[in-house]
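Example 3.
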Amino acid sequence: MSQAILILGATSAIARATAAAFAKQGSALYLASRNADELLRIAIDLQLRYGVEVHYGAFDAEATETHEAFFQSVVKTLPDLNGVVLAFGYLGDQMAARDFKLGEKIIASNFTGAASILSHCANYFESLQSGFIIGISSVAGDRGRQSNYVYGAAKGALSLYLEGLRNRLFPSGVRVITIKPGFVDTAMTYGLPGLFLVASPQDIGARIVRTLGKSSDVVYLPWFWRYIMLIIRHVPEQIFKRLKL
Amino acid sequence: MPTLITPISGWGRYPVQPCELERPERYADLLPFAGGIIARGQGRSYGDASLNENGHVLLTERVNRLLKLDAARGILLAEAGVTLADILDVIVPKGWFLPVTPGTKFASLGGCVAADVHGKNHHHDGSFGNHVLGMEMILSNGKRMLCSPTEKPALFWATVGGMGLTGIIGEVVLKLIPIESDFMVVRHHAAADLEQLFQLLESTDLDDRYTVAWIDSLTTGKNLGRGIAMFGHHATKEEASSSPGKSRKIKHGLSIPFDFPAFALNPLSIGAFNALYYSREGKKREPFLSSYDPYFYPLDSIGHWNRMYGKRGFVQYQCAIPSATAFEGIKALLEKLSASKRPSFLAVLKRFGAQGKGLLSFPMAGYTLALDMPIRNQGLFDLLDELDAIVLKYGGRIYLAKDARLSAESFRAMYPQYSDWLKVKKVVDPKNIFSSNLSRRLKIAEEKTA
């Protein structure tokens, strides 16, 4: 199966690992991010290690007005494009809860930007009647909790959006997969207290690629987070609102 | 930059120090920290070279991209955080190999430059720094600077072997060597004592590109220095064609899951192992083919092998003795070691060729002996001080990449080019921002030891 995949937010650790896992399988790639220098390094490295075609270009999740032109240029460069991985995300700061200027950025990058680019991807694959979209959300989007609810809300909105998209695109044969990682060992979580069961980005990347071979829709990574969040989601609100999670 | 405060150690797991770790994911984030910092690749040095107690340590492991490979001329440009293992995965299938490799492929490229590592081919090919065509460093002022043997050579040769104390190594250009196959042609010759072993190693008939000798460190008396000399070279296409199948890569299935109890490695168990090893390996006189992976990296197949030494960890004592006094010096060291009844699980002897240009580089023309010793009690450190005295007496020195306990005075006596090195350090890092437990212990960056 020859694949050509667009990776949005390609410089994050999870995106790098996912790109590597796809490259290992022989997929051609288009890497997109705001950081040109890093993109170049990652692209050359993947080419050297795996011998696959790797293109790259600038992409800013928050600059939604640029998304249409961006997507068109991707398709022009990779006419065989058959999949997109949405891997950008921004955790932000605790202070975002109190300072909306910070909060706005979290919502814009994690949700609004995602909704924008996804609309272009969705329209394209729908017209092709094939392809896949993998959206990397987060377990944080499963329930609002006091320690990071702005990020959680944005990711929760993303999960809901992907759910709707899955429904819309089903008749066209386009797959939409929602990935919900738990704690992953990246710059986003480095040094944070209270982490447990932390997965490596390489592990997550390999598992993301494997989801294509299964029929899953919403995937918790690693698997045990599904059950952790099942419990978390079912704690009655009367109790949950008193907790300090 | 988010940081993680946690205790870390070198490969010997002694000493262990709490450090504040930074782990950048981007090349542009490889930056010094004004409060003091030392870079750390994979932490494969044995002692405290990459530790900075209560200070910052810059983990380069995620800045590990391969940036350019000239497959026609064998030139590689890569970020310093990449491991030799990742490099080999890409270059070997294209017919290239590392010009010099230490005993583990899990060391980082930057670490190999900073320690100016050597392999089994020093007497022919010199050390790692000899094959570095250039590098980009990030200095204490945060600025990037290129250096090479021809451009800013003073900085270059202060950094090769400089233990990370002149700046952060960002990118390295390495000249590779061509190979025709993944295999090695190997011959073993047993020696009943040290004199025979030296004769084998010095024999021009037997000499090969790669030579190393394993010594049974527990034998005494007339068997002192009993061992096996091993000679090898990269198999030509013709030599490799007699192989049974494709090159075997080590399967990393075996891993030591927990610290062995202290009694696991002791004179009885090690003595028994040594006797078996001598008997089995000594018989392999006819040339045989070996895949490159187990040949160069025999211990890498055992994950966390350092745990076999137990929770207290171990010390690797590696010294170099100049040619003129090498035999007497090594003999004296082995005699002292055997008299102490302290087991050394591994004793390895290699030849060294001419000294390189790294101002603090370890190799010197002669021989190098490396010993692993588990830490049981303070007695070990007293013994090592006595070994230092012998090394100094014979004009030799200790390898900083393995060291965890050398004294500042001994260091000064062993590294006569230190004052030249210090001149460069004062120019590129006047505030001594790049500092580690090793540099403070050895009072590197200080004028006097008093």
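The helical segments of chain A are 13-24, 36-50, 67-77, 100-128, 149-169, 201-211, 224-234, 237-240. The beta strands of chain A are 4-8, 28-33, 54-58, 83-86, 132-136, 175-181, 218-221.
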